[in-house]
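Researcher: Next entry in the queue.
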Amino acid sequence: MIVNEFGELGIDGDILRGCGIGCDEDGMEQAGQLYELSNGCMCCTVQEEFYPVMRELIERRGDIDHILIETSGLALPKPLVQAFHWPEIKNACTVDAVVTLVDVPAAAAGQFAANPQAVDEQRRADPNLDHESPLHELFEDQLMAADLVVLSKTDLVAPAAVEQVTALVREELPAQVKVIASDNGRLDLELILGLSSASEETIHLRESHHDHEEGEEHEHGDDHDHDLFDSVVVKLPSVDRERLLATLQELVEGHAIYRIKGFVALPGKPMRLVVHGVGQRFDSYFDRRWSADETPSTHLVLIGQALDAQLLQDALQAAVVEG
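Model: Structure for this entry, 323 residues:
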């Protein structure tokens, strides 16, 4: 399993290890089962990050049934899929399918929709700009590359919202691409493995907003529109849970913050709190005890646009519990 993080702090890999993924039956981590690529989007670091991992896995291909690649939420699938044409990879692997997850509550709330007012303001400030909101373009490009679309978190919205998002997604998809729903995080692996799409053979036929950025230059590290997105890491000691969530809610309402995730230390609590935020929706839960060699502390990653790291740090400082 290859897990990619846009920010410098690896959150998802740590959570997966807590679920036993990449570990043996006794819960001990196994080398070569879980690869975590942090601080950069894999579609822009194909040669530097992705290719060495694939070479290592190809050497063990007799022991592997599937390689599951979970990209950053900001990744463009197309250049990554095209990397499977590289001779050393092509001779050993094929892309079984590109699976695109759509956060139904966020899509229903319009988070991925174009913002005509914001785009118009950008164009007035810089006449050379001629694009929709970068998040909207990314949403369309990820759907464009899909062989299967999974509508996630359908249990958090009414059936009418699911129908609304399904219709929205269908507008961007060819008729042969299936759309399935997932609720409460449940998904049968048999639905997403073994589709035999060989996506690398047809990906060049799927037009995207970023086609002009692909090719030799992109494969060697061009950053497409990632300069439009920021990743800020905030580190704090123990915090008050309610004050933290209230402050995060205020920050999301006042700034272009799309995603929040991290680990939180609460005073007097022996377990680590995991916090997830998408738009104005937050979820938190305890996942494991702090280990004996850890100092409980709070680490949060905030991803968005035009983020002021010091402002965010100062605002969240108000949630710190003194003493």
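Model: The radius of gyration is 20 Å.
Researcher: Noted, moving on.
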